[in-house]
Design brief:
The chain is mostly helical. The chain is built from 7 helices and no strands.
Length: 128
């Protein structure tokens, strides 16, 4: 849900200017489900797509993303659209330029830490 460092940035932003924290402040931080990376990714995606060839269903999905505020609310469709689009796009890019191992390392599928370290080392050596 949160890219590296983005959650920390979000917390810093929310805490900036506060000299004391209340119980409500900390509860608000714990319940915060805004994905800054989701907002940024969606903005970039919306700039990049050409919807002239989209079906009505695809246009409807795109409209949901256009109206989405980045809140990862489980009752909304847009966060699922964002997650599945991001994952599909990253898979396509990774598989086109690397091998499946990198995808498995990124998403933590079926690799022990030791074998993952070896695979990462091999990928870096191969693509350096």
């Amino acid at each position: 849900m949160f890219a590296n460092g983005v959650r920390a940035k979000r917390i810093r932003d929310q805490l900036s200017g506060k000299t004391r924290l209340t119980v409500n402040d900390t509860m608000t931080l714990q319940k915060d489900i805004l994905s800054l990376w989701g907002v940024e990714f969606t903005e970039l995606l919306l700039k990049a797509v050409d919807e002239t060839q989209f079906t009505n269903l695809e246009k409807e999905a795109l409209q949901l993303l256009k109206n989405w505020d980045g809140v990862m609310d489980r009752n909304l469709v847009a966060p699922t659209l964002y997650q599945s689009t991001r994952r599909t796009l990253s898979r396509s890019i990774i598989f086109a330029h690397f091998n499946a191992t990198l995808h498995y390392i990124m998403y933590g599928v079926n690799l022990t830490p030791v074998s993952a370290q070896s695979e990462v080392s091999d990928l870096i050596t191969t693509h350096a």
